[in-house]
Structures are given as C-alpha cells and as structure tokens.
Design a protein that fits this description.
homodimer, alpha/beta, Aspartate Aminotransferase, domain 1, Aspartate Aminotransferase, domain 2, 2 domains
Amino acid sequence: MKFNNFKGERVFTPGPVEIPDRIREVLGRQIIHHRTKEFTEAFLETRELFKRLVDCPSENFVFFASSGTGAMEAAVLNFFSEGDKVIAVVGGKFGERWSELGKTYGLNVIDLSVEWGKSVNPEDVEKLLKEHPDCKGVLVQMSESSTGAYHDVKALAKITRDRDTLLVVDAITALGVYNMKPHEWGIDIVVGGSQKAFMLPPGLSMLWFSEKAQERLKPRSYYFNVKKEAEKQKEGQTAFTPAISLILALRESLEMLLEVGMDEVEKKYSKMSQGVREALKEIGCQIFPENPVISLTAVLPPEGVNADELRKAILSMGIRLAGGQGKVKGKIFRISHMGMDYLDVVQALSAIELALNQLGKKVRYGSAVGKYLEVISS
Amino acid sequence: MKFNNFKGERVFTPGPVEIPDRIREVLGRQIIHHRTKEFTEAFLETRELFKRLVDCPSENFVFFASSGTGAMEAAVLNFFSEGDKVIAVVGGKFGERWSELGKTYGLNVIDLSVEWGKSVNPEDVEKLLKEHPDCKGVLVQMSESSTGAYHDVKALAKITRDRDTLLVVDAITALGVYNMKPHEWGIDIVVGGSQKAFMLPPGLSMLWFSEKAQERLKPRSYYFNVKKEAEKQKEGQTAFTPAISLILALRESLEMLLEVGMDEVEKKYSKMSQGVREALKEIGCQIFPENPVISLTAVLPPEGVNADELRKAILSMGIRLAGGQGKVKGKIFRISHMGMDYLDVVQALSAIELALNQLGKKVRYGSAVGKYLEVISS
C-alpha cells in the first residue's frame, strides 16, 4: 500500500508539536521592533496571560530567547551557588540533564536514581532530605518526557515547602498541559519551553519562581540573568533582544489555552491519553511508565515487534512518532498528545493498526481506534 | 498632514530589520521535527551556505538558540579562562557589553576607551599588546551599532595573528553586510545574530572560530558549549533543541545573499550608505561617526533640531528610525540599511525632509532624495 500523501508529515512527537494555523499566521507576520510601545503592550499582555496560566499574580517569571535547556541552566545559575548540595531525581534523560547541569556548575549533586519508567517515591526524597538537612534544592521533572513518567511534584512540594530547600521543576512537557498552580502547590521554580504544549517553534523558554526562591536569587550568568530580566520584563522590556515573533505567538497560544481554560485543557489531555493507553493495550502494547503523564504516552510494542521498525512503517504513512532515548532506545515508542485534537489521534492509532498488520502482528482493524472512541465519548 | 497609512510601520532600525516575504513564507510553515533526515539535510545545507558566506571550508562554527548576546557570552565562556587578560575596545554600548561580559566571568579586562563615534586606532591596540604580552584576547565590534563606527578588524587581525592573542569580533551588524573573510583576514572569533543582515526574527546566533581559537577551546558553559555543539552540528544535529524555524529561514536568507553574492551585497550597502550620508549632509545633518559602517548611519540632526522629536515626527508617517543609546541618547538618530533595497531608502529620506520642514527647519523638498538618487546612480 502506497500512501502518496499530498500533505506533509504529521508530528506526533513530544516536542516540537504541530503549530495551529492561528499561530502560524502570527509567525509569518512582518517583524515589529521590540523597543516600542506596540511590543511592550503585547509583551505585558502576554505576561498577564501567563499569570493566569500559572494562577499567580506575581511578576516573578521571565522568558529567555533559548531552548528549554537554557531555562534549566538559568535555574541552576541563579538560585544556587557553588558547593550547594542538591538532590537530582534521575529517572530518565532529562533527570540526567539536571544532574549534569548541577555538576557542570559546581553544585554538590546527590543523584536519586529511579528506575526508568518508574516515578520517584516522595518518601525517598523526604528520607534523603532528613539525612541531608543542608540540602538546598530538589531538581525534578514533572513530566519525564523520555519515559513518559509523572513525578508527583505536588507531593514533593509538601515535603520541601517548610524546609530551606527549593523544589525546582522542569515542567517543559507539563506546563500548558496540566492546570499547574505552582504558587498554591508550593513549587519554587518552574521551567517551560515553547515547542511543547504552547505549540510554537522552539527558541523561547520560561522560568517562574516563588518568593522563597526570590530570596535566594543570586545570578551567576550574564545572558541568563533572572534578576535583571525580571526587573526589565515586568515593565514590558527585556535585557537583550527578545525572540519577538515567539513572544507575539506565545500571546496567541496563551489566549487559545485560556479561552478553553486550563481545567478543560487538562481534562482533554487526560481523557485523550487515557483513550490512547486503553486503545494501545487493546492491540497488545504495554504502557511503559507505571504512572504515566497525560502529555505523551510511552509504549512498549507487542512482543516480537521492534519499536523502531514499527515507527519506520508508520512514518512511511506520514505520521512521525518519537522513539526511545538513552537506555530505552529501540525498546519503546512515544506518542505526544500536546497540541493534538481528539480526532487527530485516530490518524496515529490507525497508522499503528496498519503498521502492526504490515509487520505480521495481526490486529483487528478498528480495534484500537474503536476503543479510543469509546473511551473519549464516555 | 495626516498619513492614514494602510500598511504597518516600516522598520529602518539596525535590528530587527524587515523580513522579506520569501523568508516570512518559511517562518509561517508547519513545524518539522529536528531529529529527522529532513532537518539534518536542511541544516547541513545551511551550514554549507554559511561556509560560503564566510569563505572558509572549516566546520568550526555553531548556531545557538539565543540572541546575539548569547553568542558573545559563548565566546567568553569557551575560549577564555578565569584570570585571562583581555583588551576590550569600549567605544559604544556594545563595546561596554564585551567589557561587562568579561568581568562577569572573571577575566582580567583592560578597557581600551575610545571616544563614542570614533574608531579604535590599531596602533593603540598594538601598543597595549606590547605592554601586556600575556594578553589572551582583543574583544571588539566590527560595527559598533550604537555609534555607527567601523573598527578596522582587518588591521587588528594583522596585529593579533602572530601573537598568542585571539581577535574576537562582534560582527552582529557586519556579518551578511560586508564580504567578511575571517579566515583570510586572520580573525579568530566572529559572532553574528539573525535579526540583522540575515533579515530573520531574533533568536538565532552564530559563532565562527579559527583553528588558533580551536586550540584554546575549553567550554565553561553547559548551554553555550561550543565544543559539543560543533561536534554535533557538523553532523547536522544539535546538542539541544535548535530554533528549527529560524534555521530553515536562515537557509533561505543565505540563499538570497549568495544569489546576489557577498561582493555585490557589500557594494550595494556601501553605495546605499554613501548615498544616505551625502543626502543627509545636503539637508544640514552631520554624520556622527568619523569612519562610518555601511550597515547603518548614525546622524546628528541639523542645529536646533532634537533627534528624538524628529524621530517622533517621522514615526507618525509610518517610518521607524532608531534613537541614540547610552551617552548619545537624544543626540543622534540611526537609520539602518540592512535588509533594505535602494528604493526603500527614499521613503525614509522623504520622511526626514517632511519632518524637518514640519519642525520649522526648512529644507528644499527633494534635495536629500535627489542627492541620494544622484549618488546611487553614479
């Protein structure tokens, strides 16, 4: 069967994700200058929308012209000093990144290893913190995109909030998906990235911080200077040239998310991911993480099917899924829900049904899609 | 006179500059994933074009998802160690930035002050280098955008090339304007930014380095790691998520520049800027820098005219010029040539003629435009 698609590849990858037309229109506009009333107003509007997104009126957040890793670096370089003891939860590729970043900048990093696919047990964090009362921070992912595992940052915040320890959350594939309330929950630092649930091209990152974190704000970076940026940005300006088009497109994206409402957005992704998990189990797949996130699903293919061969067959149909990274390379495939609508997902599930049959793993056509429709309509 | 423009503001600012339709079309496209053959091929094509731009076959260059300051930071954090002695040529706002960056990261910075609007005398640099034979680097702008002054980096390279000193050139408003040949000239590091002569939105920076610089490559940054990026990027990949849309748009931009040819591009900007300078002198303005760049013109308005009032009047006509920064705030205005075509410029000059008359400084209509047309057609 040849597909001879007229349209380009559809990206069901956990970042970058498809850009809605409404945002593409903004991205294709003529540039405006950033040292203008027009930009300042747009930027301040964007900031107002962002406050609604994180449900907190504070001005303690900044945007950087960088990918998400830049904002992770900013977290390390603005809120921790050389020699500071921190715990890094390492249960996937992005947990490893926290650990590497900390070590690069002279932090005393205690790696809390978690089996890939498992979520960290908050009690283990509490125990470690009791052993190390001088621990200045806990660095963790809310959504560990490499394994699809959810780390319960709400539970972790209950442990850190009354301690002299900052809870630093990489929410790159969680912000804009979950109805996150970092202030209410007691999280200290939240890091986000544009090419995930915000449905923008990569190149814009965000860092939100609590009042407790603010007391520890001591910038060690010139480019990623949270203090200087926060002061400028609350007035609608930036220390260095901002990613103008991405800021304007972020305003559009935040409007889209908030028109729906973050409660509804979370419900949508929750239902969608539940549908995908049940659909895939219906055709012999297993869900890789024990406690999955709702922004993406990491999947073990049926016995005897190689994940990368499956992805290759699906790609020939015009659907791009993500593979495994690091330790689970070739073992799992990952399907993103970010930026997707309910009916988009049936394309990916149909392609999986087709590809499995093609690879000799017979599944009844319509069984995954049927299950998905059943779940989402219930 | 009311303008009642149908079209948006035209930006004659030295970054961001107007984006040609051909590039806007690319920016408005659907996203593609970066860990793909399609992106890798496009990225490698972009790199091939960039090699032609800098007239050097070496793979010693990287792109970052950041604004230009990010690449300046990368220069300091990858090629210099704490305590290294460097000379920073400080003759404007961006020279100050080199000095600040060096000091932030523990370099022993000797500020070589140059009067704003003047260009550094290469002999002064040579003298300083003789006094400080242990000096590891000279940090300078090729085009000091805040004053419009040209620093003769070709002459400086003759001084540094046989010394153990790296010549680090911020070419953010020079690359893509001048037919730069860093390898041939003996420059060690060149920094560029997307929103200048490349006519892209901000958010992508570039750093080229010589073989001599490569020997000193010792990254101190996780995000701005030139070594890691150079290794990945020569294979068509990046260490962290790249600014996908900007890379694809850069390919388009480089194709546009190279279709014309950098020799012709430089001739165009050279003629255009000469025309602008002579036109403005015709109506009583003075050119601020002694040795002006061709990417922009910094101008002192006629006696008795306030630069900011003049700009405001021009803005009401739909033309945005830039003001002075730092020490020359309110004293000068700046008009960018980057991304402009010959006949675009007559709009700005006409607006200046109109505004001067409006502010009571009578000039003969058509005198500046006439002079400009005379110069460019000669």
